[in-house]
């Protein structure tokens, strides 16, 4: 079980600067890349890599609180990470989001290994 002490807050953006239904790719240190999206239903965070192949979901399109993978068009529900159709069959991980004083944070598990090489590359380039 993950407790609050096992997590860390990752600052994403000022809420008012996030365009609606426009994915924001983030590369936190020591964590696989995540995609954060502001929708009419709230702000959601999911792992950035599609569970079907190594593709960045932040390059996809958002509609009706789902993000469509740019490669084979599986749509993932942003609330649950569950794919709505093939070819992907596994859910992407979702992460809690909090908005405090207009600032958007994602709660990430502390010490998670970097399993996505592109996330590490992005971190190194920063
Ligand atoms: S790579 Fe995302 S559905 Fe195939």
Automatic annotation (TrEMBL):
Pfam family, one: Rieske
Keywords: 2Fe-2S, Iron, Iron-sulfur, Metal-binding
InterPro entries on file: Rieske_2Fe-2S, Rieske_2Fe-2S_sf
Ranges for domain Rieske: 10-106
The protein's name in its UniProt record: Rieske domain-containing protein
Protein's organism: Williamsia phyllosphaerae
